[in-house]
Amino acid sequence: MTASTTWKVGPLAEASGLTVRTLHHWDTIGLLSPSRRTPGGHREYTEDDIVRLYQVLALRGLGLGLESIAVCLDSGVDPTRVLRDHRASVEEALAGLDALRERLVRIEDEVAAGRAPTTEAVLAALRATGAAGPAAERVLRRHLDDEQMRTLGDGAAALGPTAHYLLEVEWPALYRRAEALRTAGTPPTAAPVRKLVARMDELSALFSGGDTTISTGVRAAWRTDPAALSGEATARPGQWDDLADYLDAARKGEGA
Is the separation of the CB atoms in 126 and 134 below 8 Å? Predict the structure, then answer.
């Protein structure tokens, strides 16, 4: 493709395996819009638009919805990162499945021998799903029981590589947007804030199976030990309490 190459919607649809209707829909919702106009007023896709199209297709291939994809891309995800993270997530998923298989075989052997699987074996299987690392696990167990921990593990396993993007890309982006609204003085009852909270809770339900007691427990864990949950060694208890209170107020429909 040369630097001056542009694409009209029909040829691009044919080349990408999409339909013209799909491209028109993505244009309407602002996910992917042709950024150049010809002297005659016709809209055409540029090379930058094609790069964004690849990003959309890559993220959609990981199972993300269109709204999630828009959040990822509008948060500044570049093509190199999409490629790198896509590959890394696949490799991580394969390694995780191998580890999970080994641990499940051990649990299966225990059950076949008439012995109940140990808590350590179950937690090892949970870690293999990517639901919790050792430090995060210890913190979560202060707020969740064994069954709730297993539910989190099952949720993460069911999401597969998509869990990586939800946790590493979309969720942080949602919190950054919420913090920007909070510091700008936007009331928690404002529509943009309520929309962000609704999406956060929707993502939470994917991991918790819709059990609100699990979501509440995870939020409490974040308050008590954000370093363990976030992986940021410098994070301190109370660091994000103002934002957490702001989001809780939005959930309850309370004013600023």
Answer: no
pLDDT digits (tens, 9 = 90+) for 121-142: 555 555 554 444 556 777 788 8
233's tokens = 């060694």
pTM: 0.50
Q: pLDDT digit string (tens) for 140-160?
A: 888 888 888 888 878 777 776
Looking at residue 89, its pLDDT comes to: 62
**How many whole angstroms separate alpha carbon 132 and alpha carbon 177?**
25
pLDDT at residue 118, as a whole number? 58
Other beta carbons within 10 Å of 164: 20
Residue 251 CA: distances (Å) to CA of 87, 193, 199, 200: 36, 9, 11, 11
Got the DSSP string for the chain? --TT--B-HHHHHHHHT--HHHHHHHHHTTSS---EE-TTS-EEB-HHHHHHHHHHHHHHHTT--HHHHHHHHHTT--HHHHHHHHHHHHHHHHHHHHHHHHHHHHHHHHHHTT-PPPHHHHHHHHHHTTS--HHHHHHHHTT--HHHHHHHHHHHHHHTTHHHHIIIIIHHHHHHHHHHHHHTT--TTSHHHHHHHHHHHHHHHHHHTT-HHHHHHHHHHHHH-HHHHH--TT--TTTTHHHHHHHHHHHHT---
Read off φ and ψ for residue 33, nearest 5 degrees.
Answer: -120, 140
Q: Which of 37, 48, 46 is nearest to 7 (CA)?
A: 46
